């Protein structure tokens, strides 16, 4: 999500929270007014309960229902009216991604998305488009990631017709101005030159390349490759994927469903569907090849990343593994990795686990940023904690905390109608069950301690994972080859 999108969403949430905020401020003022020395003396003798002992009934939450429609040309639309504030938001997912790039055109997907927005349309120059958007306070954004493309529109209700007109003009008729193509290429080349500025970026990038070796997800653009890309390459990429029956769209906010459907039918008239469906992206092998890897950087700290392929989102064990990741280090100071390595030992200012469940594959692991002199100890502790959890040392209280934390996060992920439709179109895009969100809370609650222990035994294989360490091995307390043969990675310098 772009920074501008975050700002707009926060602004809308503040507008909706206005009355509630005033009430909270009033209550706070009343509390302060009664906090005199006398009142404090009276309350200080009263034993207040520990926050950990407080108990509340489970949160009750029903996901708002959106209406699913499909236009004659195949465009799928989810509609969720919300008349609280005079804004309409449109979000679209396009079945595309950098995984579909030709081997000699790495980087074309990202550049295509950027210049679609910045390069004008067949009826409007780039400068004129920017002027129209600024004058009407309309925001349009287009991006393409590894396995999907997205486009978004945010517009005031009074300018809805203009916003939709410009949005579909960008989607259907981008001009790919040569000037903007050159500018986008120059920016990308500069970002490649600076890609090694951040040690954290280096570590996770190289981990991904090792994990996805031989898979398009592990490729990255080069300066020479970007220089060879042409405007026509971007035109061809756009023409291949931007068709109505290859797009799922969600519309939320202040609109009338029948009126907006009529507008969309007119705006998409003559937009030809795909000649052949876009095939699913290739699925990684799912088999982690064990390796120990070292990147030399003269730094006072080491960055440790270890992990491999894991449970897919569309697998029966997904919910149990999601809870397992939460317990390990996916959230907060209560997780095992954080408690032991950071809180108890003081060896790291950042440590945790990560898990991303995708369709037909998943990726999970652990990371730690520690002082160079404690690198080997931190790695050993990560392995020990994973092994303890694998052997079933999970407490019922920890399991309860993890499940409640996940459920609370789930509920608050629906803080706007826009967020609701974004999740609905994502479900359809990735082919998940229609009742996935409705049953999410039930599926988390039904996971037992035995389920989590089983998936821990089955999927936690630290001894077979990829291990990558970035740092200064001259300051390590022991040689890294304690864990096995070490591959030296030489990163490019610009």
Report on the architecture of this protein.
The protein is α+β, with helices and mostly antiparallel strands and 494 residues long. It has 2 domains: 67-196 and 213-267, Cytochrome Bc1 Complex, Chain A, domain 1; 291-488, Cytochrome Bc1 Complex, Chain A, domain 1, CATH 3.30.830.10. It is built from 18 helices and 12 strands. The protein has helices at residues 3-16, 18-33, 37-44, 108-118, 126-135, 160-172, 178-193, 199-211, 223-228, 231-241, 257-267, 318-330, 336-344, 375-390, 396-412, 417-429, 436-445, 449-459, and strands at residues 67-70, 76-81, 87-94, 139-144, 149-156, 247-253, 291-296, 301-310, 348-357, 362-371, 466-471, 486-488. The chain has a 6-stranded mixed sheet with strand order 1-2-6-3-5-4, with helices on both faces. Strands 9-10-8-11-7-12 form a 6-stranded mixed sheet, sandwiched between helices. Strand 4 and strand 5 form a beta hairpin. The radius of gyration is 26 Å and the shape is globular. It starts with a helix and ends in a 6-residue tail after the last strand. Mean pLDDT is 90; it is low at 14-44.
What descriptors fit this protein?
six-stranded mixed beta sheet, 494 residues, single chain, 2 domains, Cytochrome Bc1 Complex, Chain A, domain 1, 18 helices, alpha+beta, 44% helix
